[in-house]
Design a protein that fits this description.
mainly alpha, Rossmann fold, Tyrosyl-Transfer RNA Synthetase, 3-stranded parallel beta sheet, about 5% strand, globular, binds adenosine-5'-tetraphosphate
Length: about 350
Amino acid sequence: MSEIVKPEKKPIIFSGIQPSGTLTLGNYIGALKNFSVLQDDYDCIYCIVDMHAITVRQNPADLRRRCMELAAIYIASGLDPKKSLIYCQSHVTGHAELAWILNCFTYMGELNRMTQYKDKAAKHADNINAGLFTYPVLMAADILLFQTNMVPVGVDQKQHLELCRDVAQRFNGVYGDVFTIPEPYIAKVGSKIMSLQEPTRKMSKSDPEDTFVALLDDPDTIRRKIKRAVTDSDGEIRFDPENKPGVSNLLSIMSALGAGSIDSLVAELAGQGYGTLKTRTADCVIAALEPLQTEYKKLIADKGYLQGILDENAKTANYLANKTLRKVQKKVGFATRG
Ligand code: AQP
């Protein structure tokens, strides 16, 4: 008699992007670009983290519109909604419910050390709310809810992921193996794309327009922004992030977009001016974004299709999330459900 072979369970990937502004080239290179590559070998869950976005004050109509746009961007970047679960965080109540429980397993001292909190508190001094402080706990809940094995993120999220692992290990230490301990997946090149105007700072979607390339910028705008990118005055094309952050950033962008290794780019461009470096970088960016932009335009015209995907996937995500949540609620001693 032939043995029944069960299909092997694939490891789980979870990641999310905030609909907190126009997505940047940094979001693309550090996160989005890697998402579709992973979807054949992993069970992938890609969330539109609108609950995280309200840690900074948002215009409600803009936030709602951006959630839909992000769904279109996810799919336009190559995610297949039949293979990857794409949904809005606020449609799955388990995120908030688990976050509350994990809040009770996270120390103030740990949250006080988070550099993103310090940066964002400085940026939004008029609204340093508790949500901004406990953001990493919600992020831990997002990840742990799905028994995630790996989290593809930019290097700026590494500290949050380490906290997530610590909290999960602490919880498991008390109640047994409830949570899978997730590993970060951080690309070697491009895990921190820097601002075009202040290349010692991360490129961020909530910064002024001229500091980033937006995923949906047209070719002329991309050329103009990159042409104006801050470099330095010594005129040498060399990779040296500490002393030449602007030039190194452009080299990283090109390399991450598949133009070759940093060393080969430096060799190729040796002796040329920054004008050539910027033209080459703009060419790479325009070529990399063109297919995504074309696909995006088609998708965003069909809101019914996008809404259908979000609704359908939220049902699956709720089902999966509740499996972990019920286990956790039982472990901590919440009242039995009839
Ligand atoms: N500059 C970057 N370089 C590489 N990766 C980046 N990421 C963000 N900026 C860069 C990665 O993109 C994913 C989604 O980020 P997010 O939307 O959750 O929030 P964020 O990290 O706070 O990104 P922003 O653009 O800076 O948003 P705002 O301005 O709203 O705070 C993450 O995997 C992140 O690592």
